[in-house]
Structures are given as structure tokens and as C-alpha cells.
Design brief:
Chain A: InterPro entries: ABC3_permease_C, MacB_PCD, Macrolide_Exporter_MacB. The complex is a heterodimer of chains A (485) and B (228). By secondary structure, chain A is of the alpha+beta class. Chain A is built from 14 helices and 19 strands. In chain A, a hairpin with a 2-residue loop joins strand 11 and strand 12.
């Protein structure tokens, strides 16, 4: 009887049922789309962060920023010795990224902190290679002199009449990044954001070997071949692998063993960054606080801190999804629940005689209420099914269109970005200040989202049913019959 | 047997208190047939609702077989209605979305019968009122007289002790009225139940052996020796 009655009533009031279901469907579809787009935003941000951090890194430890000492400009300086005219001259300048280093022993100290599962140190370098030639100018004597003499410093005495023509300098500046990897612990750190697609990665026995892995884009640009050599500050390294980043840009152009990087930079037993994996991803804030408290002079940057430094359309869209989208969904859902409740309550008012009669026949209030709630829940489930269909279509459309979002790393992120994570976070971070990454947005729908949608549908039905059921349960048969006689 | 003592029912109407029933004393024996008459607003329907356990008196007692309905808890009063009282209403009060058989079944739902038993008994009840061919028809597909027959079948399908009818012919034309009255009187005779009916119709009232007239909440009882 319950289902027969329910089915017939819903069929009779299908227009009202459709209105209720459509309202709920709209709210649920919005929740699905907003949730899936938010999830897509998070994935996009994760991709951006992964390109900086590598997989599995929960936070980085770097040296706290210090004010530059007087007399230090912090700018690279190149010196060239005098050479013959037209002869190519070059100078490699290897700089520690951020000019701030920590002692290698910091890695062990960090590893000893509570809540730290693993840690590894790395040294980020920026190499600037300046190469080119000076050309002396030619002294041209005035018409009275007739002869031509070389000008420039140290010219012969006398009072030559004429002028220096030509000469000058032509130099190329080639800047690239090098990351010193701890070959004994390659499961953590920036190199994990790339896959070695050609050749191989480092062996643990190559702690101080002159071998290198190149980023695929850099290798292509510089025409580096596997098995060939690459020169850094005059030192030749054998190219043993080509790494392709999983997404975005690579963390560095070249990867070398940590000891080699330290030697190149003259930074023995120094590192720029400690990459940390926490034992519990829910306790990252606590671990951060512990490290900062116990290891003085360090700055700990978590993924969340780093996420704050992402700006551009990705950040804007993420904020929109998180704020406007969330509140819009909630507003639509609340409105849909209210409308469903009021329509159900109104339907009960129109069926006063029906329910009064059933109570007169001996139906308990609970049975009448169950009937009303049952109808409302079915309405909710129909709305849920419609909402899930529309929501999935919306999410599919977003994924199909794949709008490109731009993530600007580090720039415009306020003081925290430069002072905190970005400037010292590791390879790629300094270089990424102001760098933009294009990420295609997708809208993945998870099982959790579908479960949430079903839960909302049932909740919507129950709320609507509660409105109507409450009214129905309060009906006294005599009043119900009297009101319609 | 019904035993009503000092039954009073007061309603608030704005600031005023209206006495729908003012100290009604009445005894109705098992198997009696009684008609309640009176002007509109005189308290007829209120008295019928008290007898059917649909409402409680403000004061007094309504005993049926020694049980005071006025003091029964709500759950027991509901059970009492489900088992002992059959109602027939002026507007039939059928559920519009359920067919004739399902409408009759609604009276058996509170008794906890199995679906198959419910269907069988509902079909028998409809057969007994001459609607055996109309089991699957919706109320909207039937005439007023047929709808009232369905309502009568619904009232009687559970074999109640008491049949209460509130203006059962009020919405019917003359031929239908006689048809319905014939059905009701036949059922009363065959089943031996107590039959109490409210009506405005004097011609129907004259057919009853006992007439209760109610004005301003007070009753007068007339025995009718010329009852049909």
C-alpha cells in the first residue's frame, strides 16, 4: 500500500514534484560542478607545486633571509683578463640560488624532529656563462696625418690628430640552473617531479661522479645528446639521462650529484634546501612549528604557504570556486530545500481531508507522516538523479573545454612569497619568481562528490518531508474533517 | 453499548466560548439504529465525532462497552477507530489516486493484514455493495452513488461494531439517495451493527426507529414507532 499510494500520488502531482525535484537538481548540480572544478583547481595547483617541490614533499627548510651585509651588492661580478683582439673570452659564474645556505648537517637535525618521516638536502645553483669578445677600435688619423694607428690604452705618445672608430664588445649571457641531488635519497626532492625518459638516473655510487641529468627542454635547446658531455664552469659532465617533467616546468636545467654541485659553487657541506616528508599529512603545521622552534635561523615553507604564492588566473579561478562557487551552491541548496519544504507543506495543506480520513480510518500519525516523508524523499532522489546527471554533464563540459589557467609563481604574492617560501624554497623557485605556468583545467568528479550529491538529495527530501510530515502529524482527524465540510 | 454522560464540548471562537454540546446524556444499545437531526451548527457532527473517537469532550464521559473514550490515550483511541468504527462521510472522502479496491484496503492497513488478505476482503466488500466489476476504477471514473458505495464498503470491510454516517446522502440526487439508504439499511440488518447517522433529510430521518434532535448542543430523543 505504501508504494502504491506513493507512486500514484507522485504521478498525480507530477508537476509539483518536478518543480521540487528541479530545484534540488539545480542545487545538487551546482555542488557537483563547483566541487569538481575546485578539485580540478587543487589538482592544477598541485601540479604547479609539484613542479617546484617534487612528489611527496610536504615542506622545505631553508635559511631565513638575512639583510645583505654592507658593501655586498648580491649581484654577480665577472672579470675578464686582457686577451688579444677578437679572441673569444668567457667566464662562468656559479651562484648559490638565493645566496643563503645551510650546513649539510641540518638535514640530520631536521630528520630527528618529531613528525618527520624523511628528509633530504639539495643545493640549487644558478650558473651564468658570459662569453664573447672585445674588439679594439681603430684610430684614424686626421687627413693631415695620413697614417692609421691602433688606438686604445697604452697608445704611443705624441699628439695624434684623428679619432677612434669601430671596436666594442659582443657577449652572450647564458643562464641556467643546476641542482645538486643527494644520489642516496632520490625518492624526495625536485627530481621526483620529472621522469627520466631517456638513459638513467644517478646511481648511489655516483655521489661524487661527474655525471649529469638534463631536463628534456634544456637538452633540446642546447642540443645535448645522451652519452655526450655538458660543461659547467669548465668541468665536463657525462650526460647519463634526460628527465621530462610530469607537468609544468622542470625544477632545474641540469641535475648533478650534490658533492659536485658543492664543489662547483665552492660551498662544501652546504645545501640550500632540506626537503621534508611528514609522517602524517594532517600534522604538517605542527611539524613546521617544531622545526622552526628547534632549528633556529630557518624558514619552513609548506605546500599551503607555497600555494599562497600562486597568483594569476588559476588563483583567481580557485578563489572564485572556493568562495563564490561554494556560497552560491549553499545559497541555491538552502533555497531549494526551503522551496521543497514549503511545497511539500503546501501539498499537505491541500490533502487535509485525505489525511484526516486516513486518521479517522485508524491510520497512526506515524504512518501518515511516513507516507509524506516517503513522497518527499522520492522527490529528493529524483532531484538528486537529475542533479547528478546535470552536474556530470557540467563537469564533463569543463573538462572537454579545458580552459587554460595561468599560474604566476611568486610574483604578486606579497611579502611572504619572497621572504618565505618562493625565494628560498629550492631549485626553480628563484627562477620561478614572476614565472608563469599554463595549466589546463579539468573537473574530475570523485566518488565522494557523488556520495555528497546523493546525501544532499536524501537530506533535501528529508527536510522537505519534515516540513510536510510535521504538518501531517499535527492534524487531528476531527479538525481535518471539520475544515473541509 | 454507548453510554454518554454529561458530554460537553466547547470551542473558542475569538473571545467567545461556544457550546457545541452542552451536557448530553444518551444511551445507545448494541444494534440500534439512530438518526441525529438538527439545524446547521447545532452540534450534530460534533456528537458523531465524539461517538467515533475523532474528538474528545471538554467534559463528561463517552463509554463504549464500558471503556471511556474520553480518557483513552491517543494510540488506543486510534486502535479503537481502526477496529470498531466504520465511517461514511457526506463527500465520500475517497483517496483520489487509489482505485476502488485500494480505497477499501486503506481501512484494513491499520489492522496489519497481509496484502493478499486485504485485497481479497476488499473485493468481497465491494461485491457486497454491488461494485464487483469496478474494483480497478478510480473515484473519478465512478458516479457519486458508486463512490458512496465504495465508502460504505470501506466502512464495513473491517466488520466494525458501529457504523457512523455523516450526511451520507447529502451529495446525492433522490434516486441515488434511496439506493444508498437501501444499501446502508441492508448492511445494518445483515451485520447487526449499531448504525448512527446524521442527516438533514426528514424523509430519511423518519425511517429510523429513534431520532435524536440536537439544538444548541442539547438533545431531545424521539422514539419512532413508524420506522421502516
Amino acid at each position: 500500500m505504501f508504494f502504491t499510494y506513493l507512486r500514484r500520488e507522485l504521478r498525480r502531482r507530477r508537476k509539483a514534484a518536478l518543480v521540487v525535484a528541479s530545484g534540488l537538481a539545480l542545487g545538487i548540480a551546482l555542488v557537483i560542478v563547483v566541487n569538481s572544478v575546485s578539485s580540478g583547481m587543487n589538482q592544477a595547483q598541485d601540479k604547479v607545486l609539484q613542479s617546484l617541490y617534487g612528489l611527496g614533499t610536504d615542506m622545505t627548510v631553508t635559511k631565513a633571509a638575512e639583510a645583505p651585509k654592507s658593501g655586498e651588492t648580491g649581484r654577480p661580478r665577472f672579470e675578464f683578463g686582457a686577451k688579444d683582439d677578437g679572441e673569444e673570452q668567457s667566464s662562468d659564474r656559479v651562484m648559490v640560488q638565493g645566496f643563503q645556505t645551510l650546513a649539510s648537517s641540518t638535514v640530520a637535525k631536521v630528520a630527528g624532529q618529531k613528525g618527520v618521516a624523511d628528509s633530504v638536502g639539495g643545493l640549487s645553483l644558478q650558473v651564468m656563462k658570459v662569453s664573447g669578445e672585445f674588439k679594439r677600435g681603430q684610430f684614424k688619423q686626421g687627413q693631415s696625418g695620413g697614417a692609421t694607428r691602433q688606438g686604445g690604452p697604452g697608445g704611443s705618445g705624441g699628439q695624434p690628430q684623428g679619432q677612434v672608430e669601430g671596436g666594442g664588445a659582443s657577449f652572450d649571457v647564458n643562464s641556467y640552473s643546476v641542482y645538486g641531488t643527494d644520489v642516496a635519497k632520490q625518492g624526495l626532492g625536485p627530481l621526483t617531479s620529472s621522469k627520466v625518459t631517456k638513459g638513467r638516473t644517478f646511481k648511489t655510487s655516483e655521489a661524487d661522479a661527474k655525471v649529469a641529468v638534463a631536463d628534456t627542454s634544456y637538452a633540446k635547446e642546447k642540443k645535448l645528446a645522451l652519452g655526450g658531455t655538458v660543461k659547467i664552469k669548465g668541468v665536463k659532465y657525462k650526460l647519463i639521462g634526460i628527465a621530462t617533467p610530469d607537468s609544468g616546468d622542470a625544477a632545474a636545467n641540469l641535475y648533478v650529484p650534490l658533492k659536485q654541485a658543492q664543489t662547483l659553487a665552492g660551498a662544501k657541506n652546504k645545501i640550500t634546501t632540506v626537503y621534508v616528508k611528514a609522517t602524517d599529512s594532517q600534522q604538517i603545521s605542527a611539524v613546521k612549528a617544531t622545526i622552526q622552534k628547534n632549528i633556529s635561523g630557518t624558514t619552513v615553507t609548506t605546500s599551503a604557504d607555497l600555494a599562497d604564492t600562486v597568483s594569476g588566473s588559476l588563483s583567481t579561478a580557485s578563489d572564485l570556486a572556493a568562495n563564490v562557487g561554494k556560497w552560491l551552491s549553499i545559497a541555491v541548496l538552502v533555497a531549494a530545500f526551503l522551496v521543497a519544504g514549503l511545497l511539500t507543506s503546501s501539498a499537505v495543506s491541500r490533502r487535509v481531508r485525505e489525511f484526516g480520513t486516513l486518521k479517522a480510518l485508524g491510520w497512526k500519525s506515524g504512518r501518515v507522516t511516513r507516507q509524506v516523508v516517503g513522497e518527499a524523499v522520492v522527490n529528493g532522489l529524483v532531484g538528486g538523479a537529475l542533479g547528478i546527471a546535470v552536474g556530470l554533464a557540467g563537469a564533463y563540459a569543463v573538462t572537454a573545454i579545458s580552459p587554460t589557467l595561468t599560474a604566476e609563481l611568486g610574483s604578486g604574492a606579497g611579502g611572504g612569497a619572497r621572504g618565505g617560501g618562493m625565494a628560498m624554497g629550492g631549485p626553480g623557485m628563484r627562477q620561478s619568481a614572476g614565472k608563469t605556468l599554463d595549466i589546463a583545467l579539468s573537473a574530475p568528479v570523485s566518488a565522494t562528490t557523488i556520495t555528497l550529491a546523493v546525501g544532499l538529495a536524501v537530506a533535501g527530501g528529508l527536510i522537505a518531508g519534515a516540513f510536510g510530515g510535521w504538518r501531517a502529524s499535527r492534524l487531528r482527524p476531527a479538525d481535518a474533517l471539520r475544515r473541509v465540510e | 453499548m454507548y453510554q454518554l454522560r454529561g458530554v460537553t464540548k466547547q470551542y473558542r471562537r475569538g473571545k467567545d466560548t461556544v457550546d457545541a454540546l452542552a451536557g448530553v446524556d444518551l444511551t445507545i444499545g448494541d444494534g440500534d439504529r439512530l438518526v441525529i437531526q438538527g439545524p446547521t451548527g447545532g452540534g450534530k457532527s460534533t456528537l458523531l465525532q465524539m461517538l467515533g473517537g475523532l474528538d474528545r469532550p471538554t467534559a463528561g464521559s463517552i463509554e463504549l462497552d464500558g471503556v471511556d473514550l474520553a480518557k483513552l490515550p491517543e494510540a488506543r483511541l486510534t486502535k479503537f477507530r481502526a477496529e470498531s468504527i466504520g465511517f461514511v462521510f457526506q463527500s465520500f472522502n475517497l483517496i483520489p489516486t487509489l482505485n476502488a479496491q485500494e480505497n477499501v484496503e486503506t481501512a484494513l492497513v491499520p489492522l496489519g493484514l497481509k496484502a493478499a488478505d486485504r485485497r481479497e476482503r476488499a473485493a468481497q466488500a465491494l461485491n457486497s455493495v454491488g461494485l464487483g466489476e469496478r474494483l480497478g476504477h478510480l473515484p473519478s471514473e465512478m458516479s457519486g452513488g458508486q463512490q458512496q458505495r465504495v465508502a460504505i464498503a470501506r466502512a464495513l470491510v473491517k466488520n466494525p461494531k458501529v457504523l457512523l454516517a455523516d450526511e451520507p446522502t447529502g451529495n446525492l440526487d433522490e434516486s441515488m439517495r434511496d439506493e444508498i439508504m437501501d444499501v446502508l439499511e441492508t448492511m445494518w440488518k445483515e451485520l447487526g451493527l449499531t448504525f448512527i447517522m446524521v442527516t438533514h433529510d426528514s424523509s430519511i430521518a423518519r425511517r429510523a426507529p429513534r431520532l435524536v434532535t440536537i439544538r444548541k448542543g442539547r438533545i431531545t430523543i424521539t422514539e419512532n414507532s413508524k420506522a421502516v
